[in-house]
Amino acid sequence: MNPHLRRALLVLLLLAGAAIRLYRLTDPPLDFHPTRQMHSALIARQMYLKWRPGKITPAEVQARYLGYRMARYEPPIFEALVAKTCLWAGRRFGFHLWVARLYDLLFWLLGAWGLYLLARRLTDADAALAAVAYWMLLPFAIQASRSFQPDPLMTVLLVWAAWAALTWAESPPRSRKRPLLLGLTVALGAAAGIVKAYGLVFAGGIFVAAAWMRYRGGFWRKPAFWGGLAGLAAPVVWVYFLMPRGAVGGGFLQTWTLRMLPLWLSPKLYGGWLQQMTATMGGGFLLLALFGLVLASPAGKALAAGWGAAYAAYGFLVPFHIATHSYYHLPLLPLVALGLAAAVKTLAPFVRTQPRMAQGVLALGLLAAAVYPLGISYWQMKQCPCRQEAQTFTELGQVLPDDGAMIALTQAYGYPLMYYSNRAVDFWPTSRFQQVFNLSAEAFARLFAERTRGHAYFLVTDFTEFARQKALRHYLSTHYPVVREGQGFVLYDLRRPRKDAP
User: Fold this and answer.
1) pLDDT in tens, 259-289
2) 228, burial (CB in 10 Å: exposed 0-12, middle 13-18, buried 19+)
3) Which of 88, 202, 207, 248 has most Cβ atoms within 10 angstroms of its Cβ?
4) Digit-coded pLDDT (tens) for 223-234
């Protein structure tokens, strides 16, 4: 391909991907895994109010308190960056969640650059465009790279760690850059693990693959290999060890890994895993990427083996989330993109032998394949009722009583309600949550007594989930009066049981 045309296509892909990510920039982050996004939003707002100079209102004191309630699953780096940026912009600017989307866009563009360099090294400059197109235009990538959570930044750091590792592995034996490239690989991999601990799993897989490329069979005997692994792990372990004990997610590893080990023997894990993987990455793209990786260069195969093994290990570490949460598959996206680049390189010679008419039809098909996901993403963003939902939660906070503690069956663990209404609520478990943790229906009375102890009100806003919990509906309607009811909510008074209760 003509170099000028290649550069023009690369710029066009980056501009198209950036433009769709800027569409409806200021929409509330309720479109993609709102539980995770609003968790970060509450923490970031708390940091902003903590660091902002000047007087603080009673409402802001409450907002800061709600942020302190959030468990810290990883160091709040992204949240602090958003809070600091809003502070640097001045008091009149205020706190805005859409700042996170601007940073996400910056991160993702940097990731596109790193992915292009990596794919070009493994394939060629033309095939690398396919990797960038997938990275920038895939609907799942567009959604995930607009979300307020650490996963996009972690994935971008992994891309650059892979580029540094491959460059180190292929550098001449006596090159002065070798120690610098090894240090860069370790630093980027450790940074990915600090941003989110599971990034360390992928960084380790990438580094092992690079060490095998460099030293072949005896890589485990090399001091550089063990030094690199120690350099990857030590900063991550140190950072997480220094986090306050009460802030580290309430035993995330014990709850979501050790307690979920029986899922390894359940077909639900593998069915959900495959369903999530194909839904996020695209089944056709996955097959084409697998074809490309099988026929890739030795370096490409080694990197795919290390990255793929890390992805498998990661999935078994979080068996519930890998089968139910789409964003847990985001670290797989760069590997699929590299596989597509390898497939394009393999198929390109065959395409060049075809008549011009066939090549023209293929070009139109590729254009449609690029435009179609943009249209899908545009339609999804346009249809999202995020603004209305945020407004509903805001208005709800104005009518709810404030004379007692409240437990709620509501969306996203109650985080949107807490953020937009500035009201503290405890979360009543959903039916799926109860199934996962074996909270049997037979023990409903005990569960209700334990969960509602010390609460004055029971709020319901998620009526889809309320319809699934027949025991809860019956118990509330027969034991407690409705004190307030309106558009999208019903409030029961737990302090005044019905006299005619069975």
Assistant:
1) 888 899 999 999 999 999 999 999 999 999 9
2) buried
3) 202
4) 889 999 999 999
